[in-house]
Amino acid sequence: MYFDEIGKEIKKARKGKKLSQAELAASLGMSRATISGIENNTIHEIGIRKIMSICAALGLEILVKVKTGRPTLQQLLEEQKNA
Questions:
Q1: Among 5, 56, 69, 72, which is 20 to 30 Å from 79 by CA?
Q2: Are 78 and 8 in contact (CB under 8 A)?
């Protein structure tokens, strides 16, 4: 999963829990702008602890996997769809 996909999943989970960005941010001691930046992939640097906190609050988990050398057809189609 790429960083922009993480933001999309966070946004989807937040909305599923009927939380505003401000409500989620306040519950985690973060700014609403930080949550917005993560969701919209406009934040340039973010610490893993913040991502972990957000994911934990929303019932998401972070999964690490080995990156393949070449993209799969599915990955290329997804990239094209998201472009």
A1: 56
A2: no
Second-level CATH architecture of 3-82: Orthogonal Bundle (1.10)
Q: Which two tokens stand for residue 41?
A: 């992939």
66 alpha-carbon distance from chain centroid: 19
The domains of the chain are located at 3-82
- CA 72 to CA 47: how far, in whole Å? 29
Q: Is the pTM of this model over 0.90?
A: no
Residue 42 contacts by C-beta under 8 Å, 6 or more apart in sequence?
36
